Amino acid sequence: MTKINNQDENQEAQTPLQRVICLLHKYKLVEGFVNLQEKPDQALTQSPVQKQNLAELQCLLDKLHPADIAYVLEALPLEDRLLIWNMVKAEHDGEVLLEASDAIRETLITDMGNTELVAAAEQLDADEIADLAPDLPQDVLEDVLWALPITEREQLRAAMSFPEDAVGALMDFDVITIREDVRLEVVLRYLRRLDELPDHTDQLFVVDRDEHLKGVLLVSRLLVSDPETQVAAVMTKEMVKLHPNDNAQQATYAFERYDLVSASVVDVDDKLLGRVTVNAVIDFIREKAENEALNLAGLSEEEDLFAPVLKSVKNRWFWLAVNLVTAFIASRVIGVFEDSIEKLVALAALMPIIAGIGGNSGNQTITMIVRALALGQINTDSAWKLIAKELGVSAVNGLMWGGIVGLFTFIIYQNASLGLVMTAAMILNLLLAALLGVLIPLTLSKCGRDPAIGSSVMITAVTDSGGFFIFLGLATIFLL
Amino acid sequence: MTKINNQDENQEAQTPLQRVICLLHKYKLVEGFVNLQEKPDQALTQSPVQKQNLAELQCLLDKLHPADIAYVLEALPLEDRLLIWNMVKAEHDGEVLLEASDAIRETLITDMGNTELVAAAEQLDADEIADLAPDLPQDVLEDVLWALPITEREQLRAAMSFPEDAVGALMDFDVITIREDVRLEVVLRYLRRLDELPDHTDQLFVVDRDEHLKGVLLVSRLLVSDPETQVAAVMTKEMVKLHPNDNAQQATYAFERYDLVSASVVDVDDKLLGRVTVNAVIDFIREKAENEALNLAGLSEEEDLFAPVLKSVKNRWFWLAVNLVTAFIASRVIGVFEDSIEKLVALAALMPIIAGIGGNSGNQTITMIVRALALGQINTDSAWKLIAKELGVSAVNGLMWGGIVGLFTFIIYQNASLGLVMTAAMILNLLLAALLGVLIPLTLSKCGRDPAIGSSVMITAVTDSGGFFIFLGLATIFLL
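Output (structure tokens, whole complex):
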């Protein structure tokens, strides 16, 4: 484990970010109003005070954990970010790149020369290089591949071959293997000959001559057992074995349920390939949750907070376009009923209420179902029960909110039949929302697509167009 | 660590859930069409085949990890859930309750007698009982408190005193402490006298006579170091120290950044109180992410998939009511312009497009800002930069999509000025969305409220009412 900030050493209780920003300000604003655009390569003209501030900043950066540096870089506007990035020690470059989020990593890599990039990548393990690989220029990647020892090169090739959501992409190769026929005392002596253990070593892997996994020796068992015992006597045979092509999401559930720190990864013949550790799992969980939140809000991918305007536009255009298409369709549905609206203009003011509540209710249902699908908790039996339940909830909500809306309409417009049409339209649109709120994610999932992506947009489209159609249709039939 | 399912032992590659459901079906459907409402207390009339199926089910349940049992219970409709719950071994009750999600736990606890509950709670550690406490009946909790040894009772009282989002609520008390002036060999002998180490023991805590934390001895250091060395020579003094009143969210970031397995919790005098382990952190991250997703979709809290209809209605009414209020307001904004709509009915068909795209764009901005706020990456300086950037994105999007929408309007309605009004309204509403998309979460956060809750509803309300007002207002001024 690398250096960790002792929180007590910082008496002002400032976060690393606040300290960096404070020093940056001091550096840039010294001697009255200095031009904010000043660049570090103008250092020749710097005053002694500025030089001292810069030295203080350098000293702070040298002490920061790479993850903290990545965090600070992420929070800084592009110009300041590159100033700080150029001050980071070259030996930390690789780890900072690894810790930075995709959008930030891109801006940092763009700023680096090829030799710098190769040097940075070479500081990392094979599985870590594989994480960076998609963002590296092709020629850098080839240089790195050739510079690696043959085993690591093979590992890197293997790690790069797995899709992002497979266990193989989370796997690392830092496993300590032992044989089952030795005494614990021998294991302890073997460990003592190592300089350090890989991070997150909570278990040693017991393998036979052909690397087949026989069991695991928990470090906690090793520590409490008599050194004269044989490994075979204290090793655990019941353990979680992952396969590199398993779904990574399922593996994270195993970590959560069984409170794992690490788990073995084996091939079809039970040969040990590597392991997955809990820190990779946490990163995966966080990234997955964030991506879902971003997609729900209509962002295609994570966005640099200070991305140039056009880059942001590119990241956001897709879901805006989808939204525009559904809005056009809803608009045409209303267009069909323009005659009715002309005769009874109150319809125009009332129709967004029906559509809005329908969308909200549909999204409530969708969220429940998507979560249950992700956990694998829905089968054919329960699907029918769920539809029945959601229709029941919608019927109750429809009567309740529909009643209120109907009353409101009656009071405002002094028109009882208009109120009844509102109530009926609300009930019908909520029932539609419930039915499709269950069916849309189930269908997407049956077709092998991720129900978390796009379900929300689809249900809103249905409840908008459907709501307008139901309400204006009922009004045309019963009121005109 | 408790029992873990060996995935290989199950040749049919079924999940625990699938196996339980399959056995449940066999049990219930044996001998043709047996009444599905059959209850386990009618067991007296069971056929030998049914008894055998029941025994097989019992055998499967006995082998399952408590977390798997909780998962299976969650996926079953209420009736089946209680049937299975009554078959779970009493000694697993406590752990299953702990693993189950809040909504499911409630249904299980309702089904248990007070003595059963006390027995279940007594199997758990103080920090685990504290997690269950809010769901336990008051008299059960008191019985449990009195049955505990004095140290644990104090721990339980302490653990219960922290709010859910404080580090204290994640803390456990399973720490192994050592002194700095002993040799590692003594530490190893001391550990060997224990039956087992607490889960997730990756470090031993070095304290002085008054329990002040001096450093930590990493187990991995212990294993690779010469047993003759003193603890003081190999212990780490730079470590993460949490305080029980720290924000739990910030602590999870420390685990993520520094790849921790456990971290110490100390009081203001640096006295060791307990530790936080990575499994508690994972549960917290997952729960937090889920709650955010639920709130965004308009659900107040996690809902049992098979909750009774009225219970679901209760969980969902709040956000529907909020939505209804904002829809009413938007409806009244339209109502103001009824004369204009009567004169130019196309306005009614076009206005939802302006409101819809504005809402979508506003939510994109909100999502970016809420995430950056959660990470503490926004300060006064960057706030202005962000507003400028978001306004820029909106201007580009407004010109682009507004242009398309204007063209579409011109083609459909053969009315150039109507098209221009659409374009102008789109640009203005997107600018409004950008401005408030930054200001709403920043203001909520300044007022000490969680910007993740309610921001999305507020921005949609603004872009709906605002969009209608801008579009209908412009139309009234320029077209009529």
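Chain A has 22 helices and six strands.
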